[in-house]
Structures are given as C-alpha cells and as structure tokens.
Amino acid sequence: MESFEPVLLANIGKADSHTLKVYERNGGYQTLRRVLTQLSPQEVLEEVRISALRGRGGAGFPTGLKWSFLPADHPGPIYFCVNADESEPGTFCNRVLMELDPHQVLEGTIISAYATRATTAYVYLRYEYPLAYQRLSHAIQEAYQAGYLGKNILGTGFNLEMFIHRGAGAYICGEETGLIESIEGKRAWPRTKPPFPAVEGLFRKPTVVNNVETVACVRHIMERGAEWFRSIGVPPDPNDPRDPGSFGPKLFCVSGHVNRPGCFEAPLGIPCRQLIEEYAGGVRQGRQVKAVVPGGLSTGVLSADELDTPMDFSGPIKAGCLGLGTGGVIVMDETYPMIDFLHNSCRFFAHESCGQCTPCREGTAWALRIVERIKAGRGRLVDLDLLLEIADNIGIIPGTTICGLADGAAWPIKTAIRKFRGELEDYIKHTNPHGWSATAPILDLAHETNGSRSETTSVGIK
Amino acid sequence: MGIVIVDGKEVEIGPHERLNGIQAAARAGVEIPHYCWHPGLSVVASCRMCLVEVGTRDPKTGQIVMLPKLVPACNTPAKDGTVLVTNSEKVARARAMVEEDLLLRHPIDCPICDKAGECRLQDYHFKYGQAERRAEIRPFTSRKRDIGDVILFVDRCVMCTRCVRFVREITGTSELMVVNRGSHEEIDVLPELPLNNKLSGNVVDLCPVGALADKDFLYKQRVWYLRRKPSVCALCATGCSIWIEENQDRIHRIKPRENPFVNQWWICNEGRYGYPFVHHPRRLRGVWQRQNERLLQVNWPTAIGRIADMAQNARRPALCLSPFLTNEEAYLACRWFKNAHSASIVSLGPIPYQGEDEHFPGGFVISAEKCPNRLGVESVAHWFEQPPLPFEELLTQVASGQIDTVIVLGGYIKPWITPEQAATLRGASHLIVADLFPSPLSDKADLILGTTAYAEHEGSYVNRRHRLQWLTRAVRPPMGNRSLGSVFWELNGMNGLYQPKSILAELASSIPYFSAAAGEVPEHGVDLRVTQLATQETSSKQFTA
User: Fold this and answer.
1) CA-CA 20 to 30 A from B233: which of A11, A161, A423, B152?
2) ipTM of this complex
C-alpha cells in the first residue's frame, strides 16, 4: 500500500497528455502491439480472468466472466460497447480519463475488442461532456491515421471500427441494455433479461458493454500482468465463496465539503477516512463529517461512524450501502441537513426514472412528493415509514424492476432514513409541531373540498 | 412432458409447449394478474403486476430451491420442475404496492369511464389492492386527447405499452409511442401522423384500463348491460370469430373472439364498426307482394304459399344463391327447390370483391372477398347442380326466355346489382327477391321478402381457409322479417321450429365436403379439409398468412 504507484492517472498532468505524440512517448500502444502480435484473443481473456478485474461501472461484475459468456463460435458480428455515459451524481473519473488521456481508453478498448473478437466498437458518450467528445474523436482520428484502428491493425489482420455515439442526457442510458437500445436509436428502456447482452444485445447480436475505467484497466493488466494487478487491493473474503475479491487500482472522485476535491487513484480497499483526510485534504473549515456517499448517489450514505469502511466492492455493502458503485465519494459535513440530501436524491431519481416499471416510475415520484411535503412543513412521522416501504419495493434486489438503476433510487432513501432517522424525526417535529404525530391517511380530495379547510378550497379541482 | 408446481398443485406441460408462468398457472386454475403481458405481443415485463415467487425442484432429490427475489411470471418459462408460488404474503404485498402505485395519479373517474366494469385496474384493486389510500397526490386530472381512430384519456393510462407494441408488431404502422419520462410519461402520436390503420380498434381491446376509448362506443352503454354472443364476422371471407355485444336487441359493439386458427386476438375496423347496417332504417321489412303495380304487405303463410306455387307452376325456375347465406339456408333452399320442379336450376349470385387481400406483419389478413360464405354456398350448390349456373349465364338464359321464374336469395350488405342486370332479370315472368336492402332488383320483384343479417340468424359459414364456424343469434330481426332458414324449413314441409343444427348434421352426412362438421361445432370451428381424426395434428398449422 505504501508503494502505490498510480497507473491510470500516470499521464494526467503532463502537457498535451491527450495527444498521440505524448501518449506514445510514454510507452503508449506498445502493449497493443505486443498483444496483437504475440497473444491470441483467448490468452487475453484468460489473463483478464486471472486478474479478477471487476467492472468499474458500479455493479462490479467480473469482466473476464462477462466476456466468457459470449458464444464461442458465433459467426459475428460481435459488438463491443464502451459505457461512457457517466451520469451518476458525484462521479467524474471517466471524464478525467477521456479528456486528459483518451488514448489510454482507446488502447484498452482495442485490446478488449480483440479479446472478445468484436469488430465494431461503440463509445456511448454522454452529451454533457463536450470536451471529452472533442478529445476522444480527435484521438480516434489519430489512431486511425496511425493504424491502430481500421482494417488490418498493425499488420495483424485484426479489424476494428470505432464510433462515438452521443447520448441525449438520460441517466438510464448508462444501464447496459438501455445503452444498447439507445445506440439502436430507440427509447432507452432497459430490456428484460434473459436474454443477456452477451447472447443477444446490440442489433440482436452478442454484445459486451464495459465501463471506460474497466477498459483502461485492461490495458494495464496486459502491460503489467495479472499478478501485478492482483498484488493491489483486497483478496476474497474466505467466508464468502461468492466474493471474487477486489483487486487493482480504482479512481475515486471526491467531492462535496472537502478542501481539495478531485479525482484520485488509490488501491481498492482504502478506508474512506484516508481518502477524505489524505487525498482530499480533509473536510472544509475543519468541520466534522456527517455523512459520506461512498460511490455515487445511488449507493446511499455512510454515517460518520462508518468512515473506516474499506472502499472495496464489498466494504460499503457491509455498511448497508448498495455497493462501491462508481467510486464517487460525496462528503457532507455536520452543517448539512439530511432532509436536503433526501430531497435532492429523490428529485434526481424521480426525474431520471425511465418510467418503464411501475414501482420505480410511480414510487420515485411518490417519494419525491412526500419529501417535498416534509420540507414544506407538513411532514408526519409515519411518512418516514411510508418512504421506507416505497424504497423497499423498488429495485432488482426485491425483484420489482427490470434494471438495477431502480435500486439506486431506493438506497439513498433507505440508508438516509435508517441511519439518520433521529435527525429527520426532529426536523418533522420542529417544522410541523401540530401534525407530526398524525397517522390517519392523508385526507382525500373530497374531504378537503367539503369545507373542512374552507379557506383553501375554491373549487373541486385545483 | 414436464410438471410445473403452482401453489402446491401439479400441472402437466406438453413436451413442445412453450408456456410462461401466467399460462402455466392458468392451467392450474390460478389467476396471475397482469397488465402488460399479452399472448400476442412481445414480453416487456414492465407492469410488475405478475410478480411471483419462483423456484426449481431438483429432479433427483425432489428438493425445492426458491429464488430470493420476486420474478415476473410473464418472463418465466414454465419448465419441468418450475415451482410458482402466487399466494404468499410477499407476493400479495408486491401486488398491493403495484396497485397503489398505479392509482397514485389515476383520476378514478370510473363513473364516467367506458371501461368501468371490465377494467383490470378496477378488478385488481378490489382483488389485490389495499383498502386505504396513503398518497395525497393531487390534483387529479382526466385529460382527453383525440389521437386518430381512438380517443386517449391520458391520465387513466397505466403505461403497459400494449398499444405501442401492437402498432409496431401486428400492424407495422408504429403510430403510437411513449413520450416524456418517468411519471410524466404519456402515450402519444406525432403531430400530423394520427393513429390511423385498419386494425386500430384493437388497441381499445388491448388497453387494460380506460385510457383508449372507442369513438363508436364512447358513452353509449355501460358494459354490464351488454350480453355477448359468439358469432362470426360476415364482412369478409376471413371470417373472424367475434363476440356480438347487444342490449335489448341492439348491437352496441363487436369484439374479437380469440381463435388461433383464424384471427388470433384481433379483428379489423371494417368488421368492428361494420355492424350498423343491421339496424339500418332502410332495411327491407316484412313481405310485400306486387299487385297491379302496387305493393301490398302480405303475411308469411300467404307468401310461402305463393313461392311454392310460383316454383311448381314455372316452366323452368332458377334459384340464385348469394354468398351471404348460411350453409343450412342454402342447403334447405336447394333441397326444396330441386324437389319442387324437375327442370329447376341452381345458380350462384355475384361475389363482391373490393381491392386486394391485405396482409399485416402480425399475420392478420383482410380479404378482398367481401362475403362470409362463398365456399360453403358453392359447395352446397355443386352438390345439387353440376355445375351451378354462373350469374352471367343466368342473366343470358332469362333474357333468352329459357328461364321464366327466378328466386333470388340475397342478403348482400352493399349494393350488388346494376339496374341493367335487374332489368334483365325482370324479364322473367315471376321474380321473387329475398334481401336485406332495397335494390334495383327488389324494386321490380313480384314478391319481396325481408330477411335476416348475420347477427340475427343461426347457422354456419365456411371461411376462405375452409374453416366452418358457427353463428349464434344475437339479436332478433326487425319485426316481420324471418330468416330464410325458417322459410325453407317450412317449404320443405318440416314441422316445428327451424333447427339449423339438425340441418348441419344432414349436410355433414350427405355432402362429403361437410363431413368434418359432423357433431358439435367447437368454438374455434372445424377445418373441412381434414377429417376429424386428424384435426388435432394438422389444424394447428393452419394459421399461416
């Protein structure tokens, strides 16, 4: 841990780090050359599998395993998609990679496409990253000119075409089947699984979708070997046979009430406190931490007592969060009211719910209405229970939705209420001193128009 | 063969059957509520009403392992060893939550909603919902929008997207879409591109709630006043199975009746909205006799006596059969006619055609042949006359004086005869016309009989793919009209009331083409091209194009 050397961010900070010239000067595309000329796709896949690389996009699914689901003798085409629709609040590590070191992403993508026998790669880029779009398209152009993309790459007979597809500003496009639908030109509604994309994905062909950071890691695994990768991070929990461990470096984006927000590279398993104190320079104005979002808004919150949680794929889960997520750490200091956190997250997910599954479409909107009412001073204690019930009914973990992004809508509500219930109850009691204890169902429209609150009622439907 | 366990009950699944959880449960008599799933459309699993607990039984040890989470039954293949639990506390809670979610912004304007009484949201709320409303989302709105062939009540929608999938997968026209996101989602069409296709009425049937309303049916009847009768559409040779829904002898709407061999779940707008001719005020009513250029209304016994006289006293009488007759009517008419006169001749009326056959991506066909029973009537005619006289030949023979008495059995819905043809037929010394509407021919006839339309008589039709289907009587005919079946029953000297089923039995035993129709006609009809023993194997392949 002491001798941790950043690899993903190694080039960041150098002048013109986004150009091919600088990238090649620092050893760029040498790995690609070695892989294409010396290794078979199967060997690359095997190396990635041994490295136990887990997807950096949020769910942490083992990348080698994902690739191995592709049908072996498929006549093709097989598609490779890079998920650069980085929409998770608090996350910007892909942006750093794409804006400042796009060739690293490209090299990783080409190697990954080679390993999966894909001949077409799509980069699904969110619309809100204009600089990344500029840099990435320029880098792709440079790569085509230098012979790293196109037909017969480096004389090895491997062909790869790469396209950038820009999203139109929807959170749901980051879900892998939603992303696929969006590339196909449809509304980004996630598909029901099975069939999984590895069997039937983009244009009904086998498809792999990997995060930007994941493909960047692939490049370093192929350069330094799986053993190097496994020397960083946390080994599998011996008591949990399903835990593949959390190896390798990870980019953490620390934002919020810290002195030095930014994107940092650290080994997986680093305690959250160290990330805040050492990397981000501590909480601003010397205040105390109240709550920390460990990995993007959808993972929920850690309370101040849980700051020693190791930031690996299973650490935040043990602390009641959804998972490591994207590594977007948002720090909230002691002055920050949790009702605002609750309101902001409910608003975001109500706005971004794709609207396909009933529990998520209606539940997120309902939760927002309740939180808005609490904020407006008409909250009741039972509302917290209702919010919990709504949240517990959203997501693929209870099984009520198609995609996992719905879990992301539920976890901030669940963790904020379960960990900060006292504060929220205080808030309700103070803002609604006469009505906080009411438990009767909220009066319906008929009741209100019957005149029991005559000053507010003019006609039937407002 | 496989065994699926539904709530502890074992049901068998055939070796080649591909059923999902909802279908397998239905086989066990267990209803799994659902909105978005429809057997004719792709599976999206988005309404989440069909959530159940699913497990698998190990074939060796018999041990059952359940999945920890809920699973949509519509997307769960029923295989050997699949275990479905639909009555657990967890499932009940999930259903109640979905119901509550769907009712959050629903206007609950059931008193003015056409769907009330047959609405899934209503039914499921009482069965699976919770009694008390916990949300305070207001105000309720009930916006209405004309989107072309149907009306959209925007706020009643539960976003099952059945209508959207229907216009994409079955009609291939893709007019409908989902706009906006999250709870602001709505079904809509593009400006200038309204919902406008020949199957558009089906989206109203597909809609599990009252969001899509039929313009024809809107605000006309409460559905609980309607009685439905199984019947067959008579507007083209496809012969879709339909329900005729009536109240007090007035048809209010036509609904498709599921038939995997003919129309699956759909019918075209032509058939759906084509019923009003039954109640048209211009229809021929009663029996009229022409005497000294004046029409006198006579009673049926007199008329039947006149028909018998005319046929017997003729030099050479001809009987013209229209493709709108039922097989039984055609058979009784021919049987009587061939016995009544030794020189009698059976002829076939014109077949109405309009355009080309229309094929839809979902397999539905609208036939160009706009009559229900050409094959059946032709087969009956061929049995009695080899070959029956074509209509053109009938005209020539009347013109040349070879035929002196003509009995025309019509039943045509649209104008079918030109004044010139009518004038030629009038050349006969005796002309009897039975029809639905006045025509140039009926204006000249000696005896005019008001007959019955497809909803008013019982009998069978044979569609373009040789499938014989049974019609039941849905409404009574206008006062004074009798079905041709009962007229010829009497002319044949048979006693009592007209019994079309006994006539079909006679048809099946005497005419080889109809032999497969022996016995009770099943609800999906019988394929006359195969013998009854082979029906099971081959008829399942009939529905192609």
Assistant:
1) B152
2) 0.88
